[in-house]
Amino acid sequence: MIKRKVLALSLLVALFSCKKSEENLADKPSGWDILETPVESSLRGLSPLTNEIAWASGSNGVWLRTIDGGKTWDHGVVADLDTVDFRSIHAFDAMTAIVVSAGQPAVIYKTEDGGESWVLKHQENENAFLDGISFASNTRGFVVGDPSDGKWTILQTANQGNTWYPIDSLPGAVDGEAAFAASATSLLAEGNLLWLGTGGTESNLHFSKDLGATWEKYNSPFVQGESSQGIFSITSMGGGEIVGVGGDYLNEDMQEGIAGIFISESKEWIKPQQGPDGYRSGVVYFPMHKCLIAVGPSGSDYSTDAGINWQPISNEGFHAVKMGHADGSVWASGAKGKIAKLTY
Questions:
Q1: Partner of 194 for a Cys bridge, out of 95, 152, 208, 218, CB 3.0 to 4.6 A?
Q2: What are the angstrom distances between the C-alpha of 33 and each of 72, 321, 330, 334?
Q3: How far is CA 297 from CA 294, 334, 335, in A?
Q4: Contacts of 6 (CB under 8 A, 6+ apart)
Q5: Whole-number Cα distances in Å, 119 to 61, 78, 148, 203, 324
Q6: Options 2.130.10.10, 3.40.50.300, 3.10.20.30, 1.10.1740.10; which CATH number does 2-343 get?
Q7: pLDDT score for 24
Q8: C-alpha dihedral over 164, 167, 170, 175, to 10 degrees?
């Protein structure tokens, strides 16, 4: 087993080194350009499109949109729901976006006029808690929620969020297993593939190769056993490698069991040699610079060797980190209306 893991690690490093050598890379991340926003809400929902266009959402029902790179912001409250925390958002363009609440009411709203009006598209039952959203294409998307009766809640849409319905085969969950809505990125849809990172009593990676028709489960090396522990965010490096970050949000300084790389081909986890500097709630892979970025309340980190070694970027705290759809910028969002763009 040890020999297999060493071999897998060697292959991962070699593969990533080859990827990096194919292109000229920019300098390592130098920090964050903090943007001024007109809100004080905690922003966990984030969906940048380009270097100029980005949407965000969060507590007090708040939504925001910029179309000039963060110089100015349109903002408001979704459908007057000023007590609702919209921790998930997915933007299709400058005029169209979907927001998903965490907690009650468990609702999904959509705007097609740049946030001027929001239309209710779906509402779950009074016990539901929705954790995150991910789109596999411009039309097909998924929303994950905490388990009910031993099965995960996973909704899907095939028409850009206008209607939602449960997937045919819901994966099983052990008692006390849950997903985290800290950055709304514990679910990842990529082509026909679905990945779900979990925590609580068990921290698992659930995987479907056929849009949820069948499922496999792999226990993770993340810290687990308590409701505050596990995988909080996952991202794909595009070659079957899934990188996760997390830890224990009640123990932000914990260094063990807070990150890992899952290799799809060998179906095994690789632990970092040097992990991020504490609990991290969001992670994204930036293909342009072949770089992983992780964020959390105590700071942010980057890795240029596929997540094997992490180095700090800054002590600025954030909840979520996302890459623009146009592959040209990385944005982060956090407490008290904080939004920033990564600088090199």
A1: 208
A2: 15, 13, 11, 13
A3: 11, 8, 9
A4: none
A5: 14, 9, 26, 35, 25
A6: 2.130.10.10
A7: 43
A8: -10
